[in-house]
Amino acid sequence: MGKKFNSSAKIPKDKEENFIHIKLENFEAITSKKDLLSSEINLLKIFQILENYKRLRSEELNKRILILKRSKEIKKNLSNFQSTLPSLKIPKILKKGYSELIPKEEKLGVVTLKKKGKIEDQLLEIQEKLKSLSQ
């Protein structure tokens, strides 16, 4: 793990004096070695987690692309299907809106009096309808 120095290499005396030697007891050396190995294990586990994340992320992106392609295909198929269906011809009455042609009072089947001045007009209309039915 550490670099081994060649004993035959000569170290200048001024640099030799800069080295600090620390004596560790056997228990401390074993404990620090265990800590170092557990740190390596943790780093390897983190590396595995990152690799797994990358793999899952790429799978997700591939599935998203597949969903996008299929949705485009479905949209294309729907437009093709709609183009093969016959076109519908709507009568003019329905284009304008059937509800606009019939007043609300007639829809409900209730005759309401709007104003007193219009009562005579309504009576004339009813009489004309009776005449047209009797003919």
What does this 3D model show about the protein?
With 135 residues, the chain is mostly helical. The chain has one domain (24-88, 105-134). The protein is built from 6 helices and no strands. The radius of gyration is 47 Å and the shape is rod-shaped. The model is unreliable at 1-5 and 106-111 (pLDDT under 50).
Structural class: mainly alpha
How many distinct folded domains? 1
The helix content, as a percent range, equals 55-70%
The ordered H/E elements are: HHHHHH
Strand portion, in percent? under 5%
Radius of gyration: 47 Å
For the termini, the CA-CA separation is: 118 Å
Key traits:
mainly alpha, 69% helix, disordered N terminus, 135 residues
Secondary-structure blueprint:
Elements: H1 13-16, H2 26-84, H3 92-96, H4 98-101, H5 104-108, H6 119-134
Brief sketch in words of this structure:
By secondary structure, the chain is mainly α.
